[in-house]
Design brief:
Blueprint: H1 7-16, E1 24-28, E2 34-41, E3 44-51, E4 54-60, E5 69-75, E6 79-80, H2 84-91, E7 103-113, E8 118-127, E9 130-140, H3 144-148, E10 153-162, E11 178-188
Antiparallel strand pairs: 1-4, 1-11, 2-3, 2-11, 3-6, 4-5, 5-7, 7-8, 8-9, 9-10, 10-11
């Protein structure tokens, strides 16, 4: 399954403008990328884990970042949260219902530069067949000039959603409604 958020590509696109070709394709560097989730209760982390299987396609227009397109797909059954029991609960019918909805996807609608190394990516997140607006914040962690020369693009990306909007764990009260998605990794051509 493909994983979430493509903010780093958008950020690179907005920063590399004048020196790059019109469209450039990037992919996750799987050996250097981790997509994780965090749930809190009264401010304390009560659950966290990662997605083992994900994919992403990143078409970046360096001259016009607003034309860049990102799609990330997560395999909802690939969650690893520390134990088989917890993994099974999260992927089960009352939470992600991975048997019925094997993927979650993010598709970008627009990208805005928020600083020298920052981007905001707006798009749509689909979980359990329900699609809602989703916003991702991206920070590039490397030397943009090296990226211009074709080096990997290191980044951090984050976004949050509310469980009830996607009918996730309606009767679960051990974790707050907000779930954070975090990606730390790099993209490669």
């Amino acid at each position: 399954m493909n994983r979430t958020i493509s903010l780093p590509l958008v950020l690179a696109a907005s920063m590399l403008g004048h020196e790059a070709q019109a469209q450039s394709s990037w992919n996750f560097d799987r050996g250097a990328t981790q997509i994780s989730f965090v749930g809190h209760r009264f401010g304390a982390v009560v659950t966290n884990g990662r997605f083992e299987r994900y994919d992403g396609t990143f078409a970046i227009d360096f001259d016009h970042p607003e034309r860049s397109r990102i799609k990330v797909t997560l395999d909802t059954a690939s969650i690893k949260a520390g134990s088989t029991l917890v993994d099974g609960f999260i992927t089960g019918a009352s939470m992600l219902d991975s048997a019925k909805y094997p993927t979650a996807t993010f598709v970008s609608d627009g990208v805005t530069r928020t600083g020298e190394h920052g981007l905001e990516i707006r798009g749509r997140l689909t979980i359990k067949g329900m699609t809602h607006p989703f916003q991702v914040r991206v920070m590039i962690d490397g030397d943009v000039d090296k990226v211009r020369r074709g080096d990997a693009l290191p980044f951090r990306a984050s976004g949050s959603f509310l469980r009830p909007v996607y009918d996730i764990g309606r009767d679960v009260n051990v974790v707050d409604d907000q779930i954070d998605i975090e990606i730390k990794g790099q993209l490669a051509r």
